[in-house]
Amino acid sequence: MKALVLEKYNQLVYKDVPDPEISSDEVLVQVKACGICGSDIHGFDGRTGRRIPPLIMGHEASGVIIKTGSNVTGWKPGDRITFDSTVYRRDDWFTLKGLYNLSDNREVFGVSPGTYKRNGAFAQYLAVPQHILYKIPENVTFEQAAMVESVAVALHSIYISGLEPGNTTVVIGAGMIGVFVIKLLKLSGASCIIAIDISGKQLEKAEKAGADYTFLAEENNLIERIKSVTGNRGTDIAFEAIGKNPSANLAFEAVRKGGKIVLIGNITPVIEFPLQKVVTSELKILGSCAICGEYETVLNFMKMGKICVDDQISAVVPLSEGAGWFD
Fold first, then answer.
1. How far apart are CA 33 and CA 97, in angstroms?
2. Confidence class of residue 327 from pLDDT cuts 50, 70 and 90?
3. Nearest-CA neighbor of 6 among 150, 126, 112?
4. Cα angle vertex 294, ends 167, 124, to 5°?
5. Omega before 54 within 30 of 0, i.e. cis
6. Cα separation, 285 vs 304, whole angstroms
7. CA atoms of 177 and 310, how far apart (whole Å)
């Protein structure tokens, strides 16, 4: 089969590689669409160390089943599917507690951090365990279905936050995940949604997605402006969708006393932590890791037309041209 292989950092090669073999509980998927995640970019240039070459990256994907393993039930060739980006054990302690995203020894498609290597979906075919498959509704395209993973990451963060109707919110980082957080906050009844980014272009997208207020990160008196639209208190919840020190600390400043900070981004492994402010303001710090069962809800939202993903698709190109889009 053909695949886009990360041969070394900053070098992707479109080449022939062996077809994947499936085990008894896996299906062989002909990949129809696969998105470029921000984490793939950070893997491409080596800054995270979680994609050690050689590797086939890609985990936001959809396709058609063309072959099933001997123990596969409920799935057949021709089924249109998408799948969770995480491969987890079903008998793991965390999985049995309903926390499969925290499963010990879980693996992510298209990732090789040194402890494991699992090739991903920048390829013609991919072997996928049956327990992470989801059927695509008839009115959802393969390209749209490849966006389910990103929307599910955003939805998981909202579940983690314990959002209540009427809460005031700020979303720091209006990239793809941030925009989907905004769209889902609108669906979930947030009374005020503030978006912050370094890019005016991204803030335009945030406004179209449903943000009530948009502020550039470098604006003067930014915290005062946030307080001015939140009863002079700050927001109930802050969603940080970048994962860097300045944006994380902005989240700590933007919430009210007793508020919550949901950390989604993790570009940098360590940030400064304002311990005294967290303690004296009784702030609640919540990490949001990947996805834990949100795929079905997202697919239903797409089926019912309640969330649009098309505005986040920049282009649709053949796999053979993929390297150019990383550049």
1. 32
2. confident
3. 112
4. 135
5. yes
6. 33
7. 14
